[in-house]
Amino acid sequence: PGQPHKEPFHIALGIGLRDASGADLPLTLEGESGPGPTTRVLSLTERRASFVFTGIGARPAPSLNRGFSAPVRMETDCTDADLAFLAANDSDPVNRWEAAQRIYCASVFAAMQAAAAGAPLPDDPAIGTLIAGIVADERADPALRALAINPPDFAYLAGLASTIDVDAMVAAREHVVRSVARAARDALLQCYQSLRVQEPYAPTPAQVGARLLANRCLRYLCALDD
Predict the structure, then answer these.
(1) pTM across the whole model
(2) Helix-strand-coil percent breakdown of the chain, rounded to 5?
(3) CA of 200: how far to CAs of 155, 197, 206, 210, 212, in Å?
């Protein structure tokens, strides 16, 4: 009420584009020569802005706000396929986590609608496949993999909901966690067992990350109660 006319902020937006093989594409703006960097920071200073990149042969998957370069919440037209691809392949760990969380939240909200209506809660096989792939990706840091597979907490879900049905949210989240655990059981168990290496305890980043990922896998496996 005290600021009826809001001027645009200066937003520094780090972006990248990933091709179908999962590689970062060089970002060359129209009018430039030579290959550009694979991560580029765009300066947004107006209400509307357009940036044209050249040399892009096929539709890429957009990796936006890399490194959380701007403290903003973005609305994009990324498809579910784009998000799954980025969660599995993005070289930026922040965006990989964000993509996985968005997919997870979509599954939880779909289950919430069913729970609120008294209908059977749906399974989403795609998210189980995605979590299994992240768990098995030994190229990525264990601590970052642990963050990427962590289910969104209730505060995060509540922040995205227009209305909060607590019972439906709890039932939906628990259902999706069990669904993921069933679909990714083998990958979760293999990862857990591979990280339970008997070695002297040390408070090092490597051991901390390994323990965190092992415990996240164990939480999923315990949700099966088998």
Answers:
(1) 0.78
(2) 50, 10, 40
(3) 37, 9, 13, 14, 17
